[in-house]
Fold Neuromedin-K receptor.
Amino acid sequence: MASLPSVTNWTTGAGGEGADTASLSEALASGAAVGAAEAEWLRQLLQAGDLSTTSPTLGLPETSPAPSQPRANLTNQFVQPSWRIALWSLAYGMVVAVAVLGNLIVIWIILAHKRMRTVTNYFLVNLAFSDASMAAFNTLVNFIYALHSEWYFGANYCRFQNFFPITAVFASIYSMTAIAVDRYMAIIDPLKPRLSATATKIVIGSIWILAFLLAFPQCLYSKTKVMPGRTLCYVQWPEGPKQHFTYHIIVIILVYCFPLLIMGITYTIVGITLWGGEIPGDTCDKYHEQLKSKRKVVKMMIIVVVTFAICWLPYHIYFILTAIYQQLNRWKYIQQVYLASFWLAMSSTMYNPIIYCCLNKRFRAGFKRAFRWCPFIEVSSYDELELKTTRFRPTRQSSLYTVTRMESMTVVFEPSDSDNTKSSRKKRATPRDPSFNDCSRRNSKSASTTSSFISSPFTSVDECS
C-alpha cells in the first residue's frame, strides 16, 4: 500500500534479440507503470543488481533479482482510455473527500464535547486519525503514481509512502481490537475498574510504537531510482523475493488475521451475553435502558469491524493469488481488478463516520451541528442537549430532576407544623440508588443529598450510546 502503481503487462517485440539498452530506456520513458506485473518483466530484462519494484500490498515490496536474459523491445498492453481514467479519478477523489472530512468531524465531536470523552471514544479518535491520515497522505499519491508511472514526490516522501500505510492500518485495526477488549471487560466483568484516561493514552501510544516497528523495514529499504526519462520509487530487500514474501505474510497476519480473530472471539462472547437472555430478577426500567444502550454500542462496533474485514479481504486475496500464480499478472483485465480491490480497501477509511452517524444518536447530533449551515439540516433542542454535559428531566416518581454524573442535587424541605407531613415529604423526595440497577431506594435522613452516580435516563453506563 506504500507505492501502489497500476498493473502493467509487456510483450516482446519483433526485434528482441538485437535490441540494445536504449530499447528498455525508451520503453520505460513511454509511461509504463510499475506494478505487480512489472516485477515479472524486470526479472527477465534487467541485468544490473537487485531492483525491487513496489508491490501494492500494504507497501510490501517485490524484490526482483535480474538474471541475464536477452533484451527486448516492449509494448504496454494496458493503456486506459481517458473516460476510464476520469471515472477512477472520481471514485478515488470521493473516497479521499468523504474519509478526510468525516473523520475530522468525528475527532471534533469527541474532543470538543466533554460528554463524549470516554474510553471507547478515545480509541475512536485514534481510529479516525489513522484513517484520515492514510486517505489524505497516501491514497491520491498512490493513484497518481499508478496513472502517470512517474514518481514526482522525492526520495523522502518515497520513504514515507512505503512506511506510513502499514503504520496507519496497524493503528486502525488495533484501535478496534482495544475497543473490543474494553467492551468485553465492561460487560463480562463489570466490577473490575475501567481504563483511566492515562491508561488509555498509554495503550494508544503503545499501538503506534508497535506500528512504527512493524513498518520500519519499509522505510529502511525504500529507494528512488532515476532512469532515462523516469523516476521510480521502490523497496529493495537485501535477501530478495524470499524475504519479501516472509514480510508479506507477517504483515497480513498481524494487521488482518490476528486482530480479527481476537475481535471475533470477544464480540461473540459479548453478543451471547447481551442477546442470549436477561438476568433473572433485573427487570426494572433502568436495567433495560442500560442493556439496550450496551447492545447499540456493541452492534455499531461489530458493523465497523465487519466492514473493515470485507473491504480488505479482496485486496489480500489479490496479492496472494498473483504471488502464487504469476501468470495472472499478464491477464488482460488484471489492472482493473487491482484498481477495484485497491479502491475497496481505501474506501474502508470513509465508512466509519457514516456508521457512527446512522447508529449513534450523539454522533448524529454532532454531525448535525457540524453541518447546521446547510439549509436542509435542522438542529433540534434535543440534538443540542445530546452533547451537553448537564441535562435535567422531571420524573414521574417525584418532583426531583435526574442529572448527569458529577452534578450535585439538593433537596430542600419546607418547614411544617406536622411531623407526619415532613416525614411524608422526606420519603417522597428520597432518590433512587442506581447502584442497585435503580430497583431499590436509598434510605437517607439528611436534608441534602449529593451524588456522583445519578445519571440521566438518556445516559448509558458507558456514556457512548
